[in-house]
Amino acid sequence: MTKPDLLLIGDYPGWDMQAFQAGYTCHHSPLDQVDAALASRLRAVAFKDHIPFTAQMMDQLPSLGLIANFGVGYDAIDTQAATARGIKVTNTPDVLTDDVADLAVGMLLAITRNMVQADTWVRSGDWARRGPLPLNRTVTGKRVGIVGLGRIGRAIAERLVAFKTPISYYSRTPKKTPSDWSYHADITQMAAQCDALVVALSGGPDTAGLITAAALKALGPEGTLINISRGSTVDEAALLTALETGTLGAAALDVFATEPACDPRFATLKNTVLQPHQASATIETRQAMGQLQRDNLDAFFADKPLITPVN
């Protein structure tokens, strides 16, 4: 039986490549290097990249029926163009929720308890030379606002309940939540009532810049911003200014507007914890994401319902 052709865009580890090669005739090359004969045969693409997947790229593959995205965020793919062309798009939600939520809470602990600076304090010998690290702050009981109460936002909130944190949340509409969680229709108003703001929004034009300069100012000089969503959700210029001037107390960030070449101003800030977009970067989760991506591809070629379609 002839294996279906499959174009792989992005870098895949060995365990994914072995699985792909077992079921597909794999073509791992940039789209502009795919010859016309292959382009006419390709019905599916396994996509693992942050470069834009544009309408023009789709038009180069006249038989394309599926873009199987690796990751919960699919803002790099022009889904409107895909829908207009009858191309389905899938993503890999749920399997990464726990790891992303874990890192969000870890980042809140790290920035509030100065864990990165404390590690340096020991390694540098400052503990012996200069004595104890200056006192930091507690996490338990702090008021936390979650911006975006989807799967990941809810998982973060549920973890923070163990820290006795009053939970507020922003979403387009109220959600069914525990009675003591507080819904807010305005991010800035919510930020003014919180000690920390955790951004758990999806990416894309609908959420671009939702965390405004006004929201950061409302969070205040004792406030902390945690972002594990997309760099586009925050006004990054305003964030940098707020951190530099002290109008915002601190930030822990796993995502940036220009990844991986982030604004160099971040490197000079001592009131930040910076991560290389690695919230889902565990072996267990990445293997599960790859499996779900392949499950969608297998369903497509078997003419079965897709498992996690987004359009």
- How many discrete domains? 2
Radius of gyration: 22 Å
Count every helix, treating DSSP H or I runs of 4 or more residues as helices: 12
CATH architecture level-2 label of the largest domain:
3-Layer(aba) Sandwich
Strand proportion, as a percent range, falls in 15-25%
Largest sheet report: 7 strands, parallel
The spatial strand order of the largest sheet comes to 8-7-6-9-10-11-12
Query: Which parts are unreliable, with pLDDT below 50 for 5 consecutive residues or more?
Result: none
Shape summary:
elongated
State the end-to-end distance: 31 Å
The helicity comes to 25-40%
* Rounded average pLDDT: 96
Computed structural class:
alpha/beta
Report the CATH C-level class of the largest domain. Answer: Alpha Beta
Kindly state the number of beta strands: 12
Order of helices and strands: EHEHEHEHEHHHEHEEHEHEHEEH
- Give the CATH topology of the largest domain: Rossmann fold
CATH superfamily annotation of the largest domain: NAD(P)-binding Rossmann-like Domain
Which features does this protein show?
Rossmann fold; 35% helix; seven-stranded parallel beta sheet; 12 helices; 311 residues; alpha/beta
Describe the protein's architecture and organization.
With 311 residues, the protein is of the alpha/beta class. It has 2 domains: 5-94 and 283-301, 3-Layer(aba) Sandwich (Rossmann fold); 97-274, Rossmann fold. Helix content is 35%, strand content 15%. The chain has 12 helices and 12 strands. α5 (97-112) packs across α8. The protein is elongated, with a radius of gyration of 22 Å.
